[in-house]
Design brief:
The protein is of the alpha+beta class and 505 residues long. It has helices at 55-61, 112-122, 160-164, 229-235, 246-250, 281-290, 293-301, 331-340, 358-372, 385-394, 413-416, 433-441, 448-464, and strands at 34-39, 69-71, 77-79, 82-87, 93-98, 138-145, 148-153, 189-195, 199-204, 217-222, 240-241, 256-262, 265-271, 306-307, 348-354, 377-383, 400-406, 468-473, 475-481, 484-485, 501-502.
């Protein structure tokens, strides 16, 4: 069964417990309305939405937390904790009118004080480090009355509503001192328990302000070994698993429907430009010429991926520029560039890959074989996900890594801010003055048409300088037991459990 994902990305707006449930890995809740969802990694970075980094964590927290606004399945921004908002004539003040009757999972009503606290915490105004670069533009957060909170910016930013809808800007109780281990949000599901490296239990929140979830109980079963995924699905201990490979889908029983969409991310070999030889642009360009993207797609996804040539995927529509022809496969050209860079006999390096993501492992294997043809030896280094987060992402202690990078919000800057020289999330250590200057212009350019052109120039800069070896926006395959229906694809890297239901429910 194939489901087409909708791409109506609204980039410009106006746009990684009543019943306690227990059980070991593989145990299903006894309730009739339940589902076991397999996930490839434990949620170890943080359950605090303002600190969560990994896409795999944030896609689960999407069900627990909400912001003032939130994205829907079509990429539109819709009211959530706020029922509406307005913008001042000068574009500097966003006034949010809070929805009445929104409750936290602990039963307390959401207040203007909670909203002010959450936005200030997310923006780093209370001392924490902000994960939303654009929130550095927040001057102050003011409570007008019990129903209105104003956010005042230093400079006009027409993309600001999309940042407010980012999970990292979720509304949390100001009285919760341990959100990293005891998440309390306003979403359709509430946190019940977590058994490290085994499972996490969620339960439907009966006092949710919006459309209630269909399934009562969600068990998130952690399956870090990619080779065990099919066995768990066919054995009946797991009802759903997202982001399978084509090979895995072909091994499943007839009891599963295979849903197809796009991941909306950029899979690439991300290079550490602070390490030789990747501090030499000719080396980076040589590797890009040596890689055959069509061959990677043919061998790993039955040609169902979407080639990309820079750090943007097609769903961004008007901001996206097709740069897939920047490096046509040319291994003689690659050898010439290596010789020019001082590596006529090639070199050796390691590609660090999270061991729980089979699609990335398979892509890395193909890349390694292709690079042999220009005398470059790439050793694949498999690591656990938490090791990848600490060593590669946070510590920047690696040579190259093959992963997928997603957008944290419905803004083009969410894909491009990580390549600014001094950006906290610039784990590739890319540093280019022209790029930095272009990025700064985004925030002082009032014309949307001019901003679109800057976004395209930023993408071209990354392509021209071979910032990474770009591969694809991956096709997404989801296995869902035929007992269920309603799985919905989003233009962001999220899983919406609230829409899943038992057939006939």
């Amino acid at each position: 069964m194939s489901i087409k994902r909708l791409f109506a990305l609204a980039m410009c707006v106006a746009i990684i417990p009543a019943v306690a449930l227990t059980g070991c890995s593989g145990d299903k809740p006894e309730a009739s309305s339940s589902i076991v969802v397999g996930i490839p990694q434990d949620l170890e970075d943080s359950l605090d939405p303002h600190e969560a980094v990994a896409a795999g964590t944030k896609e689960i927290l999407f069900n627990i937390y909400e912001g003032l606004l939130k994205p829907d399945e079509n990429g539109n921004l819709i009211p959530a904790v706020a029922k509406e908002y307005s913008v001042s004539v000068d574009g500097l003040t966003y006034s949010f009118i809070l929805r009445n009757g929104v409750k936290f999972h602990d039963g307390q009503n959401v207040t203007a004080e909670d909203v002010k606290y959450s936005i200030e915490k997310s923006a780093g105004l209370t001392g924490e480090q902000s994960l939303i670069t654009a929130f550095s533009n927040i001057k102050e957060v003011n409570i007008v009355d019990n129903d209105q909170v104003d956010i005042v910016l230093k400079e006009k930013d027409i993309d600001f509503p999309a940042y407010v809808a980012n999970l990292n800007a979720a509304i949390i109780p100001r009285g919760n001192s341990t959100p990293a281990t005891k998440p309390i949000g306003t979403g359709p599901y509430m946190y019940v328990s977590r058994s490290p490296q085994e499972n996490m239990i969620l339960k439907k929140f009966d006092e949710y302000w919006g459309t209630p979830a269909n399934i009562e109980n969600i068990t998130l079963k952690i399956i870090p070994n990619a080779d065990s995924i099919v066995m768990n699905l066919n054995g009946g201990s797991v009802d759903m698993f997202a982001r399978l490979t084509v090979t895995q889908t072909q091994q499943l029983s007839k009891n599963f429907n295979i849903l197809e969409g796009e991941m909306n991310l950029v899979q690439a070999v991300y290079l550490n430009h602070a390490r030789a030889p990747f501090d030499n642009v000719d080396v980076c360009r040589a590797l890009s010429y040596a890689v055959d993207v069509d061959n990677i797609l043919e061998l790993t996804s039955d040609k169902k991926g979407f080639p990309v040539g820079s750090s943007m995927f097609p769903a961004f529509k008007k901001y996206y520029v097709d740069l897939t022809d920047s490096y046509p496969t040319d291994r003689e050209k690659a050898k010439e560039l290596l010789a020019k860079a001082g590596y006529p006999d090639g070199f050796s390096f390691s590609i660090t890959v999270p061991s729980n993501y089979q699609p990335h492992i398979e892509a890395a294997q193909v890349v390694a074989e292709q690079l042999k043809q220009i005398g470059v030896k790439a050793d694949i280094k498999l690591v656990e996900w938490n090791t990848w987060l600490s060593d590669v992402y946070s510590g920047r202690d690696y040579e190259a890594t093959l992963i997928g990078v997603d957008a944290s919000s419905l803004t083009a800057t969410a894909m491009l801010d990580r390549f600014v020289t001094d950006a906290d999330n610039n784990f590739t250590n890319y540093s280019n003055k022209e790029y930095d200057d272009l990025y700064k212009k985004l925030f002082v350019t009032p014309s949307d048409e001019e901003r679109v052109e800057i976004y395209k120039q930023l993408q071209k800069n990354l392509a021209d300088n071979a910032a990474n070896i770009y591969i694809q926006d991956m096709a997404e395959f989801v296995a869902l037991s035929d007992k269920y229906e309603g799985y919905t694809f989003y233009p962001l890297y999220v899983q919406d459990f609230a829409k899943i239901k038992l057939k006939g429910q």
